[in-house]
Specification:
Elements (H helix, E strand, L loop, with lengths): L3 E10 L2 E11 L4 E5 L6 H8 L7 E6 L2 E3 L4 H6 L2 E4 L11 H6 L12 H14 L15 H14 L4 E5 L7 H16 L3 E5 L4 H6 L2 E6 L2 E7 L4 H9 L17 E10 L3 E9 L3 E6 L5 H9 L6 E6 L2 E2 L5 H7 L1 E4 L3 H5 L6 H6 L3 H5 L6 H14 L16 H13 L5 E5 L7 H16 L3 E5 L3 H7 L2 E6 L2 E7 L5 H8 L13
Parallel strand pairs: 3-8, 3-9, 6-7, 7-8, 13-18, 13-19, 16-17, 17-18
Antiparallel strand pairs: 1-2, 1-4, 4-5, 9-10, 11-12, 11-14, 14-15, 19-20
The chain binds adenosine-5'-triphosphate and magnesium ion.
Pfam family, one: ABC_tran
Membrane topology: Peripheral membrane protein
EC number: 3.6.3.17
């Protein structure tokens, strides 16, 4: 049984105190929730708990004794395991190799391959992941990769487990699986730190909640506090309308997809999105939503079928042509597909508009940089200035940049894949306002999302997918979570392969 306390800790980057005099105590057998907007300092706090950053002020205590946690290895010795917000897995290596990454004896000892394999299999079984341990990590979707990351932390038998937005990429079923595991760990006396932007998860798994705002400690309250109360502590104001969807009369067809097929993945996908419309794409993990979005955008190829944007049929697998025709994509995995992490915020915001400005033979650098600054302001991206690297921003703020890049580029049809993953409640509303702006300007939006309230709250119509096909289309105002889920599991094989990707 271990008790971990941060006592008055601060962290300074450059001239900014991103965490200021924060105290948190993680009790054995309790789940301590850290709550706050994007950039509030949550991940920075847990990085101090896990030896990645050293506090600039204050100190850390374990069981009442002052300690210094000098690195990840050190944290492990103290019994602290961390599931980081951004995945730390190597796509080229197998699941098993990833599970043991950094834990193999460096030299001297020899590796007992059989024992490793057995342990890896047990770890996957524990979290209900039905996958061969030799599968390369890169073949799994984000959700499954997240499950492996969780398995890896569990394998350490830690007495303190820190989970930084573990549920952001998971569907409800997988979340429930994780919560059941957390309940078991609680019963064993493991203390946990849990971060999530899904407020409904707090009362389900949490015991106490510490709220941070702009790096400041605000309050510690019981996890049974109402969502309204928590939002108010978090953002300092009430949020009246979580889903400010504006319905419009649909205009001409801007995106017309006919009979897209790809062996084993896409099955006769046909859909239309009209000017002014938001169409939601729902389904379980692995249903094929990301595949549809990527094929339309030209990020992947397909065997047969057509994609027509604003009356023009697009060649297969040609992103440049798609962008020229007016398509934009906010991808599922922002770190590998949506952003250049080492480039600045301004450079990232400008990426999608390079093509149109350079068409006239010169780049309008002055206008461009003004637009970048305006966009960053409008999205309320939290940063020192637009020259900061995108990779050093908090997760939710990175997502806003990917979004902002397209909102600058005058897209006609915006494809969204999990647009608000990891985005806080306030910023989520800002992103929804951007969606409204696109439709108000006569654009169209196709939005794949695992967040059912979001799909129902922000779409005009909901398309439901299962096993690579569209199994239904519901007007959003008549759809319910239940009716969508019923369509999402139809077409499933009898031996139930909900698990398959
Ligand atoms: N290495 C770094 N260099 C400079 N600034 C940083 C660095 N790491 C974090 N920051 C800044 O510190 C602030 C807090 O970031 P942190 O990642 O802790 O936020 P968070 O609460 O986890 O947000 P989110 O919900 O978006 O994940 C942000 O403004 C971020 O830009
Ligand atoms: Mg974070």
């Amino acid at each position: 049984m271990t008790q971990l306390s941060l006592v008055g800790v601060s962290k300074i980057f450059g001239n900014t105190k991103v965490v200021n005099n924060v105290s948190v105590t993680v009790e054995p057998g309790k789940v301590h929730v850290l709550l706050g907007e994007n950039g509030a300092g949550k991940s920075t706090v847990i990085k101090m708990m896990s030896g990645i950053y050293q506090p600039d002020e204050g100190h850390i205590e374990i069981d009442g004794k002052t300690v210094r946690i000098l690195g990840v290895e050190d944290a492990r010795k103290f019994g602290i395991a961390v599931i980081h917000q951004e995945l730390n897995l190597v796509p080229q290596l197998s699941i098993m190799e990833n599970l043991f990454l950094g834990m193999l004896p460096a030299q001297g000892g020899f590796v007992n391959y059989r024992a490793m394999e057995k342990k890896a299999k047990e770890a996957l079984k524990l979290i209900g992941l039905n996958e061969d341990v030799h599968t390369p990590m890169g073949e799994l979707g984000v959700a499954r990769q997240q499950m492996v990351e969780i398995a890896k932390a569990l394998m350490q038998n830690a007495s303190i487990l820190i989970l930084d937005e573990p549920t952001a990429a998971l569907t409800r079923k997988e979340c429930n699986q994780l919560f059941a595991i957390m309940d078991e760990l609680k019963a064993k006396g493991v203390g946990m730190v849990f971060i999530s932007h899904h407020l409904d998860e707090i009362s389900r798994v949490g015991d106490v909640v510490t709220v941070l705002r702009d790096g400041q400690y605000i309050d510690t309250v019981d996890a049974s506090a109402s969502e309204d109360e928590l939002v108010k502590l978090m953002v300092g104001r009430d949020i009246t309308n979580q889903f400010p969807h504006e319905h419009r009369e649909p205009g001409e067809v801007l995106l017309d997809v006919k009979d897209l097929n790809r062996e084993g993945e896409l099955n006769n996908i046909s859909l239309q999105v009209r000017a002014g419309e938001v169409i939601g794409l729902a389904g379980l993990v692995g249903a094929g939503r990301t595949e549809v979005i990527r094929a339309i955008f030209g990020a992947d190829s397909y065997d047969s079928g057509t994609v027509t944007v604003c009356g023009k049929q697009l060649p297969k697998h040609a992103i440049g042509k798609s962008i020229e025709a007016g398509l934009g994509l906010v991808p599922e995995d922002r770190r590998t597909q949506g952003l250049v992490l080492d480039a600045s915020v301004a450079e990232n915001l400008g990426l999608a508009t390079m093509i149109p400005t350079s068409k006239y033979g010169f780049a309008d650098l002055h206008g461009q940089s003004k637009r970048e600054i305006d966009t960053a302001k409008k999205l309320r991206i939290r940063m020192a200035n637009v020259n900061q690297t995108a990779g050093s921003l908090s997760g939710g703020n990175q997502q806003k940049i990917v979004f902002g890049k397209w909102s600058m580029a005058n897209v006609r049809v915006l494809l969204l894949d999990e647009p608000t993953r990891g985005v806080d409640v306030g910023a989520r509303v800002e992103i929804y306002e951007l969606i409204n702006e696109i439709t108000a300007n006569g654009g169209a939006v196709l939005m794949a999302s695992s967040d059912l309230p979001e799909v129902l709250g922000m779409s005009d119509k909901v398309l439901v997918m299962s096993e690579g096909r569209i199994t239904g289309c519901l007007p959003a105002n008549e759809a319910t979570q239940e009716s969508v889920m019923a369509l999402a599991v139809s077409h499933m094989d009898d031996d139930n392969n909900a698990e398959r990707n």
